[in-house]
Design brief:
Elements lengths: L11 E7 L5 H11 L9 E6 L1 H12 L10 H11 L17 E3 L1 E3 L6 E3 L6 H19 L4 E6 L5 H14 L5 E7 L21 E3 L5 E3 L5 E5 L10 H6 L4 H18 L3 E4 L4 E4 L2 E4 L2 H12 L13 H13 L25 H14 L3 H9 L15 E4 L2
Parallel strand pairs: 1-2, 1-6, 2-3, 6-7, 11-14
Antiparallel strand pairs: 4-5, 7-10, 8-9, 11-12, 12-13
Helix pairs in contact: 4-5, 8-10, 10-11
């Protein structure tokens, strides 16, 4: 795979990874990046993992095997890149320190103590991982002189999902999110010795079935995972909220809902039982239209918490509509005899009418769903819609 790097020049490229019990994703990703055109060799590697994952990375990648005179896998990787004349001098800074190899920490509310996670099994541990990951990534995405290449190939599925969410929340357009691809059988962790990169010294690998595979024949590549950069929409929120994954998600959800509402125009006709949402038409009956027209003309009204609280206001509006009916147009909906009936919630008239409107708006698709969610409901008797997005047609 090739990728032309047309992004602006940056001082430092950071490979940001989440890993669990498969440290090989680090060496595989670095090998794939170094063999893109042009080659990319990260200046620094930062790994988010568990206590168990840290032990595995140190044991498999950073410590030399017991055999005398052999190097660690990490040192072998650097030597292999140098032999291929891929400039790695002064780059790929990584070690067993807290700044490079970061273990997810949670807090015990009962004792007030912090502790490293061995695994992510519970909701509390998942929430802690999300907050930890967001804050760790933020330290790089808020640095204008740093470019992030994130990889989500390692760790439990929840860690990859959280990294994708964090990149969508605070990642930038010049950052990358990747997934490393390794062909069979080199992706099998049961190989002995394990596969780390094609030019590793131990290139004869024994499969579980007793057969062998040559590491030098492995194909390793990267797939870029597209993500939406929400930070361009919510710069103020991102600067105001220092951390908290759940809080940031909720803030962005509210922002997206607001943008969605502002992109939907509602047209309500005064002289026909019809409404339009971004060009899609719904046909109403006289009682439905009476209620819809009342809500559209009073979008900021608050009438209590139950449907019965609407009775007086909707009946007063009903009389206004009857008085304003044109005498010369007997076919006008405002002549319909059903409008003469007093509306009482004791027979669930209001609830049923709103239910019918919900069904009709939902039937026209996503834009209609936005209007449907703004209609009154028990606990909120109001029409939550922006007045400037409502247009009236006719007299």
């Amino acid at each position: 795979m090739t990728r032309s790097d047309s992004s602006r020049s940056v001082e430092e490229t950071v490979l940001f990874a989440v890993t669990g019990m498969s440290p090989a994703i680090l060496t595989e990703t670095i090998w794939a990046l170094a063999h893109e055109v042009p080659a990319i060799v990260p200046d620094r590697v930062v790994v988010i993992t568990t206590a168990t994952g840290r032990a595995g990375i140190i044991r498999e990648l950073l410590e030399a095997p017991a055999t005398a005179g052999t190097r660690s896998v990490w040192d072998e990787l650097l030597a292999a890149l140098k032999k291929e004349k891929i400039g790695a001098d002064g780059k790929l800074r990584f070690g067993a320190t807290g700044s490079d190899l970061r273990v997810i920490v949670t807090h015990d509310p009962a004792t007030g103590r912090s502790m490293e996670l061995d695994d992510i099994r519970t909701k509390r541990e998942n929430d802690a991982a999300a907050d930890f990951l967001l804050e760790a990534l933020r330290s790089f995405t808020e640095n204008a002189d740093c470019r992030v290449i994130a990889t989500l190939a390692g760790g439990r599925k929840t860690m990859g999902a959280l990294l994708y969410a964090c990149m969508s929340l605070i990642g930038r357009e010049n950052d990358r999110l990747t997934h490393v691809l390794v062909d069979e059988p080199f992706d099998d962790p049961r190989l002995k010795p394990r596969f780390y990169f094609p030019k590793q010294t131990a290139n004869k690998l024994i499969r579980p079935d007793g057969g062998s595979a040559d590491a030098r024949k492995a194909n390793v590549s990267l797939a870029d995972v597209p993500f939406v950069t929400l930070r361009s929409l919510f710069q103020k929120e991102l600067r105001r909220l220092p951390g908290g994954f759940a809080g940031l998600v909720q803030s962005c959800r509210a922002g997206v809902a607001k943008i969605s509402d502002e992109s939907v125009d509602l047209i309500v006709h005064r002289d026909h039982c019809r409404a339009e949402v971004n060009g899609r038409t719904i046909v109403t009956n006289p009682r439905e239209h009476l209620l819809l027209l009342f809500l559209a003309e009073n979008p900021s009204i608050r009438l209590g918490s139950v449907y019965a609280d609407m009775e007086d206001a909707i009946n007063a509006f009903r009389l206004q509509i009857i008085e304003a009916k044109p005498e010369s147009s007997l076919g006008d909906w405002r002549h319909d005899p059903r409008l003469l009936e007093v509306i009482r919630e004791s027979d669930e008239t209001i609830r049923k009418t709103i239910s019918n409107l919900r069904r009709k708006f939902k039937a026209i698709g996503p834009d209609g769903n936005r209007v449907e969610r703004a209609l009154p409901e028990r606990g909120r008797i109001s029409f939550d819609w922006k007045p400037s997005s409502i247009v009236f047609e006719g007299k």
